[in-house]
Structures are given as structure tokens and as C-alpha cells.
Design a protein that fits this description.
There is one protein chain. The protein is mainly α. The chain has one domain: MetI-like (MetI-like fold, Orthogonal Bundle). α4 packs parallel to α12. It is globular and about 75 Å long. 37% of the residues are buried.
Amino acid sequence: MAIGRPVEVVADVPEAARRRRRVAAIGEFCRERPLGAIGAAVVLLNIVVGLGATVIAPYDPVATDYGAMLARPSAAHWLGTDAFGRDVLSRIIYGSRTAMLVGFACAFLGATVGAVIGVASAYFAGKVDLLVQRVMDIFLAFPLIILALAVVSILGTGIFNVIVAIAIPMIPRAGLVARSSALAIREMPYVDAARAAGFRHRRIILRHMLPNVMAPYLIMLTAYLGQAILAEASLTFLGLGVSEPTPAWGLMLRGAAVQFAESAPWMAIFPGLAISLAVFAFNLFGDSLRDALDPRLRAQ
């Protein structure tokens, strides 16, 4: 037993050092990029609110109260109620769950698939790279929201279909960024050594090249989060996204129709603020993360 103790202490030292470096890196990020830290805090708040919506929300977001329709903000309903008497604050809180789910799923799916395709295209080069890039150019010819509208009109409404519809236009954009980084990695000696060792193409792409594009991948991931939330709200507002009675910020804006603009402006103001704040926070965090991970910007 006495012999084993020093081994445990020695084994704990690297882990403790890594933990201290992580804490120091987070502290340095907050000091040098306060706007990015604020954005990260807002993002974390949205995640916590979405996960704890059942505890935080004061009312059931789908429960109607026809005796309190279009009630003004008060002590009973802090942000008022909508045309069905549903509490606006509760629906915004639950709507953050929908926004975070769609945002993270779309960003992860689009950035991951795009990165794999981009790295594979750079690795094989030649005719494969030429064919893949021409297909990417076709998708890039359409704006994100237009292509998402086309896909969701084919697949239909629902959260899963919305995620696929928004992720598809993100794939070629992520693929181009990953390809530009992978072109330089392809010429590295360790890639040639992996080929000489007889490793399969899949192993070289996934284990030797893809991990070295993690910096641009993380930047794309954070940048796409805000775009995905905004695209989901837009599709839902147009009636092609999440359907009633699911709480969603875009659906709340759609319910705040023109006839309620003067009589109940809070129906549009507060969901709009929630969307703007979430997208702005993700953009702030994404820009700061890009500055922190890009060695050229970090050296300035």
C-alpha cells in the first residue's frame, strides 16, 4: 500500500496541471475578450434555462386561460399573455429549449458533415476534389434560407425536418473552410508516413487529418449556432417549422399578428428580444473564439 501511494500522487499531477491550464485559459479569455465572455455567459444562461424550463417557468406553456387573453404585463404574468391566454414568459423559457436544440443540432450536423467532406475532398484531390467542389458550388449558389425553404417544403414540418433543412445549406460552407485547411495538412510528412505504412484512406482522414482542423471546425460550429436559431425562427414564422402548440420563438412572433400590434405589442417585442439576444450572444462568442484560436489574430 505504501508503494502505491506515490504512484497515485504522480499520476494526479498531470491531471491537476491540465485542470489549472484550463482554468487559466478561461480566465485569460475572459480578461482579453470580455464581449466574448459576456456572449458565452448568455449562451450558458440559455442552455440552463432550456434544461430547467420545467422548474423555472411559472406556468404551463401550452395551458390556455380564456379569462386572461391578451393580459398586459403584471405581477401575475410578468410579460403578459397571448391571444389564447398563455403566459408569454413561460413560452419564451420553453422556447429557449427548442431554439437550443435546433441550433446545436443544426450547427453540429452541418459543421461535422461539411468538415468530413472537405477534408476527404482535399485528401483525394484530382477528379474527386473537382467533382465535390462543383457540387458544393451548386449548393452555395442558393442563400441559406432559400435552400432551407426548399428542403423543408419537400420534407415537411417538424423539428427533425427543420434540423435537416437548415443543416444541409451549412454543409458546403463548412466543407470549403475545412478543405482550405486540409490542403496544407495533406502535404505534411506524417500524412505521407501514414500512407507509406499502408493505413486505409478512412483512417488517415479521420485520425490524422480531421483532428488538425479542429480550430476552424469549432469556429464554424459557434458561428452556425446563431444562424441556425435565426433560420429556425424564420421558417417557423413562415409556417414551415415548428407547429402549434410547441413553444417556439418564431411561432410566438407568428402569433403576434398585425391585428395585435397595437393592442398587445408585448406578444412580438419579448420573443423578438429573445431571438436577437441569443443570436447576438452566439455571434459575440464565435468572433471571440475565432480570434483566440486563429494564430495570426492571436499574435497581433
